[in-house]
Design goal:
This protein has helices at residues 19-24, 60-70, 93-96, 98-105, 118-127, 137-150, 169-178, 210-217, 307-314, 351-359, 387-393; strands at residues 40-45, 55-59, 83-86, 108-109, 132-135, 159-162, 182-188, 195-198, 228-232, 247-252, 274-282, 288-293, 298-300, 303-305, 320-330, 334-343, 370-373. Helix 2 packs across helix 4 (98-105) and helix 5 crosses helix 6. It folds into two domains: 40-293, ANL, N-terminal domain (Rossmann fold); 298-393, ANL, C-terminal domain (GMP Synthetase, Chain A, domain 3), CATH 3.30.300. It has a six-stranded mixed sheet, sandwiched between helices. A four-stranded antiparallel sheet has the order 9-10-11-12. The longest helix is centred in the middle third of the chain and has 14 residues, at 137-150. By secondary structure, the chain is of the alpha/beta class. The protein is globular, with a radius of gyration of 22 Å. The protein has eleven helices and 17 strands.
Amino acid sequence: MLTDRAGMPESAIENLICYEDLIDAESESYDWPEFDEWTASSLCYTSGTTGNPKGVLYSNRATVLHSLSVAMPNVLNLSDNECILPIVPMFHANAWGIPYAAVMTGTKLVMPGARLDGEGVYEMLNDERVTFTAGVPTVWIMLLAYMREHGKTLDHLQRIVIGGSAASRSMIQAFEEEFEVEVRHGWGMTEMSPVGAINTLAPAMRDLPAEEKLDIQSKQGRPPYGVEMMITDDQGNPLPHDGEAYGELKVKGPFICSGYLGLENSEAHEDGWFDTNDVASIDPQGYMQIVDRKKDIIKSGGEWISSIDLEDTAMGHPDVLQAAVIGIAHPKWDERPLLLIVPAEGKSPDKDDILSYLEDKVAKWWLPDDVVVVDSFPIGGTGKVLKNELREQFKDYTLPGA
């Protein structure tokens, strides 16, 4: 039990040990070992790949280089002036590398407990005077709902990193305009140690009109030092970084994995480029935007529809708490989008109203063929919506007119 002797609770657990008693007899100093930098330091398993999770074994070298990179001002901006609360669990790609980078820089590190509802997260942020926090959108949806319902503000929080899955435009706008908290949209992978991009506005962008700034902030951002990016077509040919073309996102760098543990023929692709299995665009300023995961993008009549863009737009509707889009088989178009909605508290979303809201915001042929309201989405251990389970649940669903 993580407490001193005076704090030991009544418990039915046999042989429960008091933590402070356990360490009391140990030395307060530590003799750091000397070993080769390529020695393995930790092992994480992927959550975003298809099939069984795949092991990524990190070296001490990669972890140190990643920590140096993400501590920089335009990434996590860590120092002993900061207090950070990583809501993302440590089993999720080492909590995005935050525990290592925080200790490296002397940042105060607040570890979350089991209460990850809106009230619990708010109390941790407020009581510990947290200046910086990081986590997945599902956590921030609950926090925003709690603060709005109870009229709360965040007096100490300055910045928030949102990753794991795409942050909606409305979420970014809510934190920045309602609560004066800077949002840093991010993207990464277990295979990348894991930070691959963080979105901070360049100086020339900070005085842009609000809508133009949101256009940029909705992207996943620029790669930190040590990460190279490119996009390619289906034949592996590089595509232009013009913000228009999109293709398979590939990355390389000194803290990006070369293959999966124990799996033959899983090494990185030609010239060391690792295929992320994401579809993305990169603009002339180097800001990358995820269009979709390859397995989630919807192919309709030979053209691609981004489930992420549709979800982001739908979550701007005041009656929508969460949105997920999946492809449903169609006899003519191969696939068509089905929009699934978790309603905001006390709201009853209307299908026609939702479609009318989307009508002037997305291409007409992108409009979902149907809208279904559900009580909740299946959520994985890392806080992501499990679209594979949604696809299984709706595999026999028949779209209107199909």
